[in-house]
Amino acid sequence: MLDLRIPIGWFFLLNALVLILTGVFAPVSTTVGTMSINLNLWWGMCLALFGSFMLGLSKLDRSAKSAPAKGTTAPLEGPPATSEE
Amino acid sequence: MQAGFVDYLIIGIYFVFVLAIGFSLKKQMVSSEDFFLSGRSIPGWITGLAFLSANLGAIEVMGMAGNGAEYGIMTAHFYWVGAIPAMVFLAIFMMPFYYGSRIKSVPEYLKLRFNEPTRALNAISFAIMTVLMSGINMYAMAIVFKLLLGWDMTASIWVSAAVVLSYTALGGLTSSIYNEVLQFFLIVFGFLPLSVIGFINIGGWSGLASRLPHGFTNLWSHTASATNPMGIDWLGIVSGLGFVLSFGYWCTDFLVIQRALAAENLQAAQRTPLIAAIPKVLFPAITVLPGMIALGFFPDLGHSNDPNMRYDMALPLMLGKFYPSGMLGLGLTAMLASFMSGMAGNITAFNTVFTYDIYKNFFAPEKSDDHYIMMGRIATAAGILVSIATAYFVMGAPSIMDYMQSIFSFFNAPVFATFLLGMFWKRATPAGGFIGLVCGVIAAVIQFLMTNAGQLTYTSPMAGNFWRASIAWLVCFTVTIVVSLVTKPKPESELQGLVWGTGPSTLMDGLVPWYKRPLILALIVSVATLACNLIFW
Question: Where are the domains of chain A?
């Protein structure tokens, strides 16, 4: 089954890119309390972090699954992934 | 509000991903179990977030912000009283019967436990309700985007219907579930900055309280009588909302239960509502709070003839006020996603109930598996067409929407009495279940008609919904018991695994790490909910 974390990760990375580019090339400042922040830029970076986190988790899981279990001669590819938690 | 190129780009990216998920799942839809139940193979965190998102349709997201502006923080009762306790109860006590009996739909349980007519009544009313709800969702979306961005309503309806049709017909329940999870994250990331910025700019909690009418920042302090923003006292809240309405919805509505049935094992199914409950506890911060803040910034909200100042527009108004082009696109996409997955959730629940409980059961019992997948796809398309028709129908008479919403709001109430007695009282008989349910539904309809004719009045429309639900529940509960006592029960051998105390022990914990155990999760969620009630007392 398609690992949902992959499309989620790429979706947010792509949106992050759009927001960061908007923030850089067409900066708008939003007043927050006494500060003035470039919302697109900052939130774009947060989305990029989240997207990378999702992709990282997915990659971590796959490399854990493909490693042979200790003391066995299991093949590099694990059993078909039914549980991906 | 003016959406620019960047905003449309973000909306475009969303459409591409949604369709791509549908296409990439198509080849995995081999059997009907894959299509309607995701092959019972989805991890708990995904079914959990989908369980939450299936309920986060348009009416929920915009409506809760609107209610926040209309009733203040008492709207959070819909979460901390009206959702979490029922979700915990579902997980711990009811899920073992739903998941354990290997049913494909909620009406099927009623057939096993009671009889065929009970199932038929529930299946048909559920099927009608879901397509109508999906149509209402579509209409709500079209009207919002017309007011906000001047989009043509016909174009909104047909484009969104085409997208939903593509991904649900291609990837079945899995596609719907995956998109619901994507939507969950979009809603969080799209609306969270809005709450934070709004909250800081209005001057924190004290700034907010000083700008809102009296009683808007207390959950329970003003509920000794009905003189509070919601117009209902604590007894009405606890019995109407906290017990009947919320248990009726969260514990019996196939739209949400279907997500848990897709889980990979019983414990994952039990975890589903509990994992959903964790963000649900916090959700008032991104739905109710922006609505309250909106009232602080736009005191005219709800008190003007301008359609842009209706309570439901609280969230869009906040988006326009605080988000620059770019973030605006993200916020709009989050709204769009909630509309579309609200529709998709209804449609996938509809195609399952229609195919299994109506088509297979009454018209074509012995067909091939491929035949049922094909029928599921046809039902998906037909369901969407009926939804579109409903959307146009509502467009011609907008007040219909309020009627439908209020009748649906208590339609589930009697069903919950049927399930409660069915699952926890061995003596409940097939005849009792059926006659009780019929009487409960009739009681609900009669009250609704009497309210419309002015024969019944309540302190507020909300109070009306709560009390009508309580009465319909009570009628079903009482009639089921009375009829059961004078009719013949099913032999215990036929009730194995369907009723409390017949199957294997259901509270099995262990063999998994503590944070995956249903009982521990249930405890954490309950304590957090209690704390929220006390903090905002």
Answer: 5-66
